[in-house]
Amino acid sequence: MKIVNAEFLKSAFVEGDWPKDSRPEVAFLGRSNVGKSSLINSLLSVRGLARTSSTPGRTQSLNFFLVNDEFKFVDFPGYGYARVPGKIKSSWGEMATKYLAKRRQLVLSIHIVDSRHEPTKQDLQLHDWLEESDKPRLVVATKSDKLSNNELRKNLKHIARVLNDDSILAYSAKSGGGRIELWRAIKSAIEQGD
Length: 194
Prior knowledge:
By secondary structure, the protein is of the alpha/beta class. It has a single domain, classed as P-loop containing nucleotide triphosphate hydrolases (Rossmann fold). Helices cover about 35% and strands about 20% of the residues. The chain is globular.
């Protein structure tokens, strides 16, 4: 997909702040420090549009980005970071659940896991929730450049087994590996959502 323009639209802490237009939306979800922002920046070929931080748990709102004036990316707060206060943690869960359950514009949820690690308990909960609610979804395993081809193949098989999902897509924000396939999936979801 050719990116003509991509811009930060707004941060939303409550449902009333969500954009009101009907453009399709693609949500990016995953635990803190899994590489959500890096993946978004890599997909859009824009450095620093989605904020990356070496401190996990920094994103505390839904961040909306407008792409080509046609659709939006939604960057979710990361989950599972221990040092975030309990009150903020619970509000994240509430916000995510509300958005995923209610948002008619949502055409695809991209569940991001780290290709180097075992899916966490929260990863399993999110995967089950998306599956049960019958939402269009795709699991993307980031940081694939940090593994040898053999390790990556082995880890992807393991993640697929743990999540009971055969369609895990490997992605590297550094090398761009998996970019074409991910854009293909996003484009297809947007077209089907129209």
